[in-house]
Design brief:
- With 174 residues, the chain is an alpha+beta fold.
- It has one domain: Glutaredoxin (3-Layer(aba) Sandwich).
- Helix content is 35%, strand content 11%.
- The chain is built from 5 helices and 5 strands; from the N terminus they run αβαβαβαββα.
- Helix 1 crosses helix 4 and helix 2 packs across helix 5.
- About 20% of the residues have low confidence.
Amino acid sequence: MAQSSTQRSTDPASRKNTPWWALTMAGALSVAVLAFAMRSGSSGAQSHAEITPEPGQPSTGVIGATGVIGADDEGEARPARAAGAPLTLEAASETVSIEMYSAAWCSACSRAKAWMREQNISYHEIDVDQRTGAMGQLAVLNPRRTLPTFDVQGEVLVGFQPDRLATAIRGAAQ
């Protein structure tokens, strides 16, 4: 019996006829819906999806300070910031979700990573050439897909401008 034109076949061979752009758009839409759902569900750093490495890939994306907020790298307590004292970028980055979409060939990305390393800024690097689905996520945040692109607690910054990035990090930590 012939299949109705409104029904879709679940036969894997029929998927070969699906245009690549339709799959790309469906993937981008899925990422957008997921990002919206996660951001509207709660506030703070927990609202961002945790991107895990592909099986068999090393997890090298988190750069910078890794200790508990209010403790140094060995877990020793450190004094709290005095009221009115300026918030350092290092301290601000520990309380804010910072994702950087980058690629190894991108010279602006290399400069951004070097600057953030000098400032001891904690961030999550997403290499769009190495991570499956990263280009689709990037397209949702930045339709032009230019690098580097930063997602600082939901604020998207395109390109590397140290002053703008520092302002966004401090602003998100306030």
